[in-house]
Please model this.
Amino acid sequence: MTSLQSQIDAIPWFHHFDKETFGFETKGIKGIPNRREVDLWGFKPEMFKDKTVLDIGAWDGYFSFYAEAMGASRVLATDHFCWGGDGWGTKAGFDFAHQLLKSKVETLEIDLPAITPESVGTFDVVLFLGVLYHLPDPLGGLQRAAAVTNDLLIVESTFEKLDETKALFEYKPERLREDYTNHWSPNLKGLRDVLAGLCGFHQVDVRPWSADRLICYARK
Ligand SMILES: C[S@@+](CC[C@H](N)C(=O)[O-])C[C@H]1O[C@@H](n2cnc3c(N)ncnc32)[C@H](O)[C@@H]1O
Model:
């Protein structure tokens, strides 16, 4: 009989599921050894407890399942590029984790341009993690995420060390050579001002969590 770990290891994981949170381990290519990104980002269980949560670009679903484990009342995980589009990945990891965790996380294969209050509804908390810089139209993407957010939008992204007296998004043609799906990357002020000025958020906290990545909490 094949062991559980060998079934897990047969899947090409993006996310590193850790034993501490989920009771099983995957060798995902993303993440920092022996650190949980959710801790570095300042995620707290109370952000998710009894909340409805939408995870845009969920891929293997670590953050969808994390929200569920923290007591979310409903979680909808969405993706397209990695679940059925032209993407780098598949839904195999998500489906395996879903079954293993006996999860009630709902799923919808939908591309960001199709995400509207009519197509998915609205949610207390929306996760927009690692998606922004993949979008040819980052403002449109943020506005679509904002339109389905009732209270809190959490954005995780690359950022550029540019003049912080100006709100800037830099087009990164050199990143297109590394990964053709990468397009725009903001400075901290750029993301803050766009969320406050063009997406309807009243309180926007943006901070770097590594040398070139930011975490942002935007509240309506
Ligand atoms: C770098 S992965 C991030 C996955 C996960 N959210 C995380 O933070 O670890 C980028 C995700 O965005 C999704 N994605 C890329 N382009 C997208 C688009 N145009 N619309 C919706 N999702 C997209 C990919 O399928 C993938 O799941």
